[in-house]
Structure formats: structure tokens, C-alpha cells
């Protein structure tokens, strides 16, 4: 029997794949657990529509990520580190602080785990951080670390 998988099934196939399985396996396991549907004209149409909608959503997400990447080029995040009397810094700036500052001052939400450059920013100055906004879309942001006593 040919079925369209609705989810990944070990040793059978991936989601949205059309596979041939035995009738008993399809009836007693796949259909019962809503892991597959039988191949028919209607189910093939529905699968094609779902794939087209997913492709369109992916394109829209990529366009939004590219717009955000352009916006991020103009953004500079200002952060402070404690500095001693001799100019030595205490601590470092973390990706979480960068994320919070972006959200608070520039109203841009970015997941801290998407920041590619993870080296600690423990000295004063300017840094450039790369952020993966979407597959293949990388934005760059400037971070200025200044001192305060």
C-alpha cells in the first residue's frame, strides 16, 4: 500500500514522503497513530498545496531576515563595563546583554543563540558581531563597549 507520511517514521521515511508499506503496518500502526494517510488524488493535492505554502512562507521569512540585516547595519549597541582606576576592566559583555540592549533601545528581537561571534568582549572599544537571522542570511551589528567607574 502506498501512503504519504505525516511525520518522520524511523526506517520508513521522512515527513511528506510517499512510501510503500505493507497493508497491515499501514492499517494497524501508521493510520492508527496518525503518522500517514493513504495516497489518493485528494491527499496528493493537499500535499502539493502544503509544500507550496511552506515554500512561500520560507521565501517571506528570508525576505524579512534580509530587511532586518539591512536595518542592523545601521545599529550600534552601547554597553558599559566597570573599569578600575588603572584602566583595567572587570568582567565582559555577554550575548545576552547584547540581546537585551537591542530589545530595549532599538525594539529588535534576536535570539542570543543566533549570535555567531561568541568571543568575550572584555576590553573597551568597538566590536562587530555577526548574527544568523535565517539560513544563509547573516546580519552584522556594531557593539561599542565603554567604561564606567
Q: Features of this protein?
A:
elongated; 36% helix; 2 domains; alpha+beta; Ribosomal Protein L9, domain 1; 3 helices; four-stranded mixed β-sheet; Ribosomal Protein L9, domain 2
Any idea what the shape is? elongated
Classified by CATH, the class of the largest domain is Alpha Beta
Main beta sheet, described?
4 strands, mixed
Strand content: 25-35%
At the fourth level of CATH, the homologous superfamily of the largest domain is: Ribosomal protein L9, C-terminal domain
Tally of helical runs: 3
- Average pLDDT works out at 90
Tell me what you see in this structure.
The protein is an alpha+beta fold and 149 residues long. The chain has two domains: 2-62, Ribosomal Protein L9, domain 1 (3-Layer(aba) Sandwich), CATH 3.40.5.10; 66-148, Ribosomal protein L9, C-terminal domain (Ribosomal Protein L9, domain 2, Roll). The chain is built from three helices and seven strands. The chain has helices at 23-30, 41-73, 95-106, and strands at residues 2-5, 18-20, 36-38, 76-83, 89-90, 125-134, 137-148. A four-stranded mixed sheet has the order 5-4-7-6. A three-stranded antiparallel sheet has the order 2-1-3, covered by helices on one side. A hairpin with a 2-residue loop joins strand 6 (125-134) and strand 7. The protein is elongated and about 80 Å long. The N and C termini lie far apart (74 Å). The model has no long low-confidence stretch (mean pLDDT 90).
Give the arrangement of secondary structure elements:
Elements (H helix, E strand, L loop, with lengths): L1 E4 L12 E3 L2 H8 L5 E3 L2 H33 L2 E8 L5 E2 L4 H12 L18 E10 L2 E12 L1
Parallel strand pairs: 4-7
Antiparallel strand pairs: 1-2, 1-3, 4-5, 6-7
